[in-house]
Amino acid sequence: MISINSSEEKPLLYGEQNAENVDSEQQPYVVHYPHHGYRSYKWRWFVLATLSVANTSNGMIWISMSTVSNYAADYYEVSLSAINWLSVVFFILTIILGLPAIYILNIYGLKVSLLLATWLNALGQLVRVLSQFDTTWGFTMVMVGQSLAACAQPFLIFMPVQVAEEWFPDGQRTTATTVASTGISVGILLASSICPVLVSHHSQIPLLNEVIMVPAAVAVLMATFGIRSDCPPTPPSSSAAAESANVQPFMQGIKEVMHNRCYVLLVLSAGAGYAIFTALLTLLIQILCPMGYTDTFAGWCTSSMIVSGVVGCFIIGILVDKTKLYSEVMKFAYGLSVVSLCVFSVYCLQPHQEIIIAIASCLFGMFSLPVYPIVQEMAVEIGFPVKEAISAGILNISGCIQSAMLVLLLPLLSQPLSAGKMAHETCTTIGQKGHIVPVDQTGK
After folding, report:
1. Cis peptide leading into 370, omega within 30 of 0?
2. DSSP 11
3. Which pLDDT tens digit goes with each residue over 365-423?
4. What is the H or E stretch that residue 415 is in?
5. Where are the alpha helices (H) located in 324-442, listed in sequence order?
6. Of 257, 400, 426, 434, which sits most exposed with the smallest number of CB within 10 A?
7. CB 113, CB 230: distance < 8 Å
């Protein structure tokens, strides 16, 4: 919806109409800027790096216990269901704090929101570290720390689109969103790769917590001493200029997008895809170990899923930035991710199928993870002129609601393992106190 007085700059995706063709309701958001009035600052890369490190740390905290759930359950003397709640609490608090986080991000801006998120994240991990010194309240302290870090997640996952919009030129927006959004995926990758290596006995859980404290501390330092303002002095693009002029009331924006049928359809479908991906990451070891697959193999499957997904994100992000084929690329990726998930679902319930499971994991990650940043950009475009924190935030809340439902409901569909399969399961640990019950995920 932007009028650009220069033939050199390409119009935005949502600027494919000229200003004179914009309907009357959106005319207040049309801004006329000469091309020479835009400027990109090198400092934008530090802002992006800070958000990426914060998201990486948050992802590690979120998924770390799930990657060694059997050892964690043994160390804290709780059930696997209790360990699952360490992941579910992220979904629940994102749902509860989603709208307040959107409001704070809109009213107080990027700097305050990023500082609040990084400090909550680091404080939560510090409480997890301190839990090793109290054997009576150890798991309660872990849950408190996990909850504090979970309070940071809605801010962190809502920020990528806003950072891309306010700091980056049009040709780099999708790439910037991809880099920031995949920070959580990189954190999950690191946790899935490092945690099974660090923890080969339940007594090593404290070491895991200490290692994960490092990126949380780095993110706090970067945000506290490096983030100087909410946005650059001069907008990098016409869309950023339009965003600065957008003074639409908070509740009006929510009401507007929720009456947009295309937006609601995108929110429901993309939320379902996000839920399947996160639920699979959370429950992967519990799905594989009854069939005799080890923690290490499950960790490598998670890692391959994330690595191939991150590679796919960058390739597809650059492709979308150049072609603007958002809808076409999303549908293509969705289709292939469904096929690969079906293959994984069939073979993960059979023993001795490591090669097929590993290949299916790679393909699922490669085609499912890139959808996430694309649909965030699409949500902003479909919801324009609503603020990007609102349109992207509601999308993420939908994903968290559906994720929580899957993580809580899927274990309820399982059955105890038969006597024959119990001889091959790898869910139990040496010296465990009887809290882990291997289950059959086939539903038979």
Report:
1. no
2. P
3. 888 888 877 887 788 788 877 777 788 888 888 888 888 888 788 777 777 777 767 76
4. strand 415-416
5. 326-347, 354-368, 371-383, 388-409, 419-422
6. 434
7. no
DSSP assignments along 215-262, one per residue: HHHHHHHHHHHH---SS-SS-SSHHHHHHHH----HHHHHHHHHT-HH
Write down the residue that tokens 């400092």 correspond to: 43
Task: Return the sign of the alpha-carbon dihedral for residues 325, 330, 335, 340.
Answer: positive
Whole-angstrom distance, CA of residue 376 vs CA of residue 431: 46
Closest CA to 396 of 175, 156, 180: 156
Q: What is the DSSP string of 139-179?
A: HHHHHHHHHHHHHHHHHHHHHHHHHHHHHS-GGGHHHHHHH
Backbone angles phi, psi at 46, to 5 degrees: -70, -40
Spatial contact of 76 and 139, defined as CB atoms under 8 Å apart: yes
- List pLDDT tens digits, range 320-373: 877 778 788 888 888 899 999 999 988 988 888 889 999 999 999 888 888 877
Give the model confidence (pLDDT) of 249-291 as tens digits: 777 888 888 888 888 888 888 888 888 888 887 788 778 888 8
pTM for the structure as a whole: 0.72
Residue 34 makes CB contacts below 8 A (sequence gap 6+) with 5, 6
Q: Which two tokens stand for residue 184?
A: 């959580």
One-letter amino acid of 158: F
Q: Of 15, 21, 42, 45, nearest to 242 (Cα)?
A: 15
Assess contact for 60 and 215: CB atoms under 8 A: yes
Distance CA 228, CA 222 (A): 11
Tokens of 260: 């947009």
| Whole-angstrom distance, CA of residue 134 vs CA of residue 76 | 11
Query: DSSP 3-state assignment of 308?
Result: helix
Question: Over the range 131-159, which residues count as b (16 or more CB within 10 Å of their CB) and which as e?
Answer: bbeeeeebbebbbbbbbbbbbbbbbbbbb
Give buried/exposed letters for 184-220 (b at 16+ CB in 10 A, else e). Answer: bbbbbbbbbbbbbebbeebeebbebbebbbebbebbb
Residue 334 exposed, middle or buried by CB count within 10 Å (0-12, 13-18, 19+) = middle
pLDDT of residue 103 exceeding 70, the answer is yes
